[in-house]
Amino acid sequence: MKNITLSAEERLIERARAEAARRGKSLNQLIRDYLEELAGQREPSQEFERLRELSKLSQGRRGDWRFNRDEVHERS
Description:
Oligomer: single chain
Structural class: mainly alpha
Largest sheet: none
Number of helices: 4
Helix content: 55-70%
Mean pLDDT: 85
Strand content: under 5%
């Protein structure tokens, strides 16, 4: 594995580190994941994991609401 050097504003790095921590990752891992995605080298299982991460970040919550049979089969 090769190392790279990245230059960025200190404030940007601090915010990115905070976001990585919120996702339970290091900034290094977050950047590595992005590079893999950018290069098209992510495995389907990684894509599924990314979808799970994004769903946890979603503001939408259904609470106790569920479809009922009548709603599912209702025709307009």
